[in-house]
Structures are given as structure tokens and as C-alpha cells.
Amino acid sequence: MRLLAIDCSTEALSVAAGDASNVTQRHGHAGQSHSELALAWIDEVLAARGWRPHDLDAIAFGAGPGTFTGIRIACGIAQGLALGAGIAVVAVPTLEAIAQRANSMNGATRVLACLDARMQEVYVAAYALAAGRWQAAMAAAVVARGQVRAPPGEWFGAGGGFAAYPDLASSIVLRGVDASVEPTATSIIELAAVRLRAGEGVAPDDALPLYVRHRVALTSAQRAAGERL
Q: What is the domain extent for residue 153?
């Protein structure tokens, strides 16, 4: 199964090509340059595999939550390439990709995934691994940093939200925390492969970002004050 994946949901850019067991990835800090770098990185990882878009079975992307601009960039690129190649798209939740990465890095099977949502808020979800798939014990939501709670049971905290707000780890009972865990294109490929085998790929036009915050733009005053979504 030949897959391409892209994630622009954080300040990192992550692009990978491969299957669930053998992946070529480029991952690094992009800041606000996702749109300038993404296509070149995609060309790079595809060339490393000797593939073109028409050789792929599907294209996956980090659907969010995360930065609105980044999510739209990833979704638009995935849709455009898939439409031209006549293949399916798989939208993978960003927080689930964090859970997958936490499993690879830390062996965690019950993950409270957390990303900085700015404005003293975080994106958070809880996933438990069962029969080879992550089940959402708590759906993705945006909450104030002081209102983060874990479902009953023992959970491992993962994601940049714990780095942005170090007090979160002490306010929740967790068996461990790794704030360095990021969503990666490799993790997205691993999750997309499972979805494709289950027949969950969709037509490019039907692939949608996952927004959990209703406000998708800032006023001029909010931008002048330094606020960011």
C-alpha cells in the first residue's frame, strides 16, 4: 500500500511517503512557511521512493485540530494531488497521530493528547488502543488550560500542550508525560493504512478538516494585540 502523508497542524511540517512499515519522512520546523515548503518536501520524499502521485493508493493528511491555516494547507494539498491522481484521501485527526507517536516512542496505549491552542487554551483528546485501533475515550475539544481533565483510569500525557503549559501535568493524575511528542507524517501513514484497509478512504471533495474551535479568524484589534489562533 503506497501512501503519502502531510501534516501542517503545528509549527512543524511533516511529510512522508511509504507504507505502514517502511516510510521515508522529512520533518522539521516550518514556522509560517508551510505553504512555501510543503510541495518541495513532497517532491523530495516521493523521489526518494521513486514514486509519482499516480503511483499512490491514497494521500493522508493531519486533519486537525491545530493551526487553522496549516490544516487548510494540508487539506488543500491532499485534495489537489489526490484529485489529479484519481485516488482517495484519508483525514487523520492530529491528536490521534500524537497518540500513535506516543505509542511508538513510549509504548503508551492510553494517551491524553494535548496541543497548544493559544489564548490560554489547549486542544485535548483521550485515546485508548484496542484491537489495533485507537478508540476515543474523550472526543477532541478545545478547553481552557485550567479545565483539562482526563477520563477515569490511568493515562499517559503527550503533546506540545504540556510544554506550553507545564502546570497541566501537575494538575492531572497521569502515569507519565512526554511533552516532546509531535504529530508526524509517519504516524499519519500508520493510521491511514488501517483506515484504508477498513474501506474508510474518501473522495478528495469529501475530505474535511477537523475544527473544534468555532472562531476561525481574529479581529484587527486582536491581531494588533498579538493574539494567534
A: 95-178
